[in-house]
């Protein structure tokens, strides 16, 4: 069943909503048909044949025959595809493109097959969420200031094109057609988006947005981090941007010939606009409401704002002023899961509706069986009505019986950061590590601040962090000293930008970057960057 009719010029948002409602009301049947289609098309692949389905395409046979696996289990098959094996290994249709995950979780990117079906489901998700978004916050004949970046692309040993998932989407012709159909084409030319230097691209994204400031109706990026990163940069370079607009001459910091050539077609002397931007910036109080002041017709800010992006919401709200923050959809490099069809909800409360025709879904209950084996997966129609993103499962601070998630870490940092407010300071970014080099092991929290804090305040922050991990296993272990005192390490300003540069150097895209929150032994390069930039260290006395 096809949800959307292809259209290069426009689509009817109400029709999209109506068709989504029809799909959702019959989700059970749609899931059966989707699984049947997948198994009929790919049943003769090497991977599926080994499980003895023997042509069966029903849900019961699938669940009984095909085991739950992780990406690690599929890696040998994927690597054969990457190396040029043309046999139908995982899919009947040949894979011609490979997506790379950001690599921020395990320290290295994963290879994920990318095909036209995935591109179609991406556009379906985009159109569905836009239809609901546009009903609440309509945009008409505007532009989107999109902080998006293409990563370096390369050919694999087998001749397949490889790049980040976002790069594969942005390079696809369907992406531009869809943005145009949604009346929010981007401000920046392709030369800026796919430029080889992300810092030069960011500078030009800002410049393009300022040139088209009255046309901007949406400010967006894949992740909230990229939007905050962009406007932190604006604080540093705004006077240079104003000078470029006043004189019609691009900054010498932009050296890539293709970017300079593309920008020369957009940049003309405009002293009046330069004065407007200058006067706007000098009257702002600590850059509060910067985005609506620069782009007065903006309706909302858009990007993924859940999970590891939540810590950036406070700063994003500062830049956004009264503008609503709308969280984008739920997906991964492997594929999409759900659309945000309740855009009026704040990011902290956002829920997702799974589109039942873009894949076959099973969910693992969080409750473990008595023997420690995971509970039996359930189908899409057997789960609760709401789907929320909480955290990535494999990011965990744990030494013995303690278990603290990415969300627990975030809440602890938020609590301790309140102590900085009186000194007008904030946590720019943070990460953590479990240090087991000494006995007992202890948690290490890395903070980058936007200024200098007193030793007394930082000692208080360290104690607050320690006390804010309320997991029973952690608290009891701290009391009997089987877990050592928490350590707060302050790193130099710019340290987390070095981590971003590290991943970009490995081929990641800025717009796909997620700060590693729990740095383990598989991420030694990041741990080295953090450790080599420590300027102060404090140990908690909360349980002394």
Task: Tell me the helix content.
Answer: 40-55%
| Estimated share of beta-strand residues | 5-15%
Query: Mean pLDDT across all residues, rounded?
Result: 90
Class from helix and strand fractions: alpha/beta
State the major sheet: 4 strands, mixed
* Computed Rg: 24 Å
Spatial arrangement of strands, main beta sheet: 2-1-5-4
Q: Could you name the ranges where pLDDT drops below 50 across 5 or more consecutive residues?
A: 1-8
Q: Name the shape in a single word.
A: globular
Q: Helical element count?
A: 20
Number of strands: 19
Distance between the termini: 64 Å
Protein name: GH3 C-terminal domain-containing protein
Domain GH3 C-terminal: 407-521
GO molecular function, one term: acid-amino acid ligase activity
Organism: Solanum bulbocastanum (Wild potato)
Explain what this protein looks like in three dimensions.
Helix 10 packs across helix 11 (224-247) and helix 11 packs across helix 13 (271-283). The protein starts with 12 loop residues before the first helix and ends in a 5-residue tail after the last strand. The relative contact order is 0.11. It has helices at residues 13-25, 27-42, 46-49, 59-65, 71-82, 116-136, 165-171, 173-181, 190-193, 198-211, 224-247, 257-264, 271-283, 290-294, 313-320, 406-417, 455-468, 472-479, 495-505, 524-532; strands spanning 97-100, 111-114, 143-146, 154-155, 161-164, 216-223, 300-304, 325-327, 330-332, 335-339, 353-354, 362-363, 378-379, 396-397, 404-405, 427-435, 442-449, 487-491, 534-539. It is of the alpha/beta class. The strands form 6 sheets. Strands 2-1-5-4 form a 4-stranded mixed beta sheet. Strands 3-6-7-8 form a 4-stranded parallel beta sheet. The chain has a 4-stranded mixed beta sheet with strand order 16-17-18-19, sandwiched between helices. It contains 20 helices and 19 strands.
